[in-house]
Structures are given as structure tokens and as C-alpha cells.
Amino acid sequence: MTKDRVFTRNYNRKKIMKRLYLILYYGFARYLPTQPAPGWRFAYWLRRWLVKGVFDECGENVIVKRGAYFGSGSGLRVGSRSQIGHNSRIDHGVVIGEDVLMGPDVVIMSGGHAYLDPDIPINLQGTVPSRTITIGDDVWIGTRVIILPGVEIGKGAVIGAGSIVTKNIPDFAVAVGNPARVVKWRKSSTTN
Fold this sequence. Notes:
This protein is of the alpha/beta class. The protein has one domain: UDP N-Acetylglucosamine Acyltransferase, domain 1, CATH 2.160.10.10. It contains 2 helices and 18 strands. A 5-stranded parallel beta sheet has the order 1-3-6-11-14, with no helix packed on it. The protein has a 5-stranded mixed beta sheet with strand order 7-12-15-17-18, with no helix packed on it.
């Protein structure tokens, strides 16, 4: 068997397995309980096992909570010990660092719709190019935060509940509001 045929065969097998993992996740595992409901340990294990076959990269001990949606998982990288919150929606092209906490109903969108030509209905204008979103290590993202395309959230940052992040947030900043703005720091720059 030639190298090309072996590559094609392995590629097709991976593609089929990824589809199977997605069917199992969206058809079953997505609805399993979260702590402290009975069966949460099995649910966490199963969702973790499935997303390891779906995400581009998935660290150790990642927790995916009930109802999380991430499309096909393409372009999604999640670091070790990070959590994807209840009913969160994560677009492709997102990098989540290690030890990230995420509250429920977080929306992370790397793309959007074109809308500039008023003579063409918005739904016919197509999409704008995706812009990668990067979330650093040890970040806490509060409940119902929205993170928009191209944003970078620095290491150790805290994003307050209900905030809309439209611009980059520096390391160790605490940001809140719409649009999110830095209101204080977790540690002073002299102790870095």
C-alpha cells in the first residue's frame, strides 16, 4: 500500500470517528447532568472523552458542562483543567488556555455577518473573515459574558458577569461592563 493511500485511509478514519463523537455528544452526552446531580462524574468523563476526539487540541481534565455548544469543534483548542460552562456557545478559531473557569451562558464568537451595503439584504451579504480569539491561562469568565472576534484576554484576567468584551484585556485585569473596561487589577505591576 502506498503512503498516499495510507494517509487517505487514516484521514478518512479520523473524519468518520470525529462525526461519530459529534453525534454521541450532541445526541446524548450534552444532556447528561452536571455536579452535584447524580451521575455527574460519568457525564464529565464521557464529555471529556468525546471532545478529545473533536477539538483540535484538548488538555487533561477538561470539564465540559451540560448544554455546551461548539459546532464541529474545528479550530478549538482547550488547555488542561479548563471548564466550558453550562449552555456556552463557542465558535471555531478559539484558543482557551489552562485553568480557565467559565460561567454559564458564555458566548465566544470569532466570526460575523457582512452588513455594509444597504442595497443588499444582510442575509445575502455573506460573512466576514473569522478572527481568532485567545483566552490566557487562569482566566475567570463570568456568567453571560460575550466575547467578540479578534479579542485577546490576558493571563489571570477576570471578566465580570454580563460583560461584552470588544477589545483586548491585559494580564491580571478585572474588566466589567458593556463594552468591558478595566476597573481594577488582581496584582500590581511591581510584583510581576
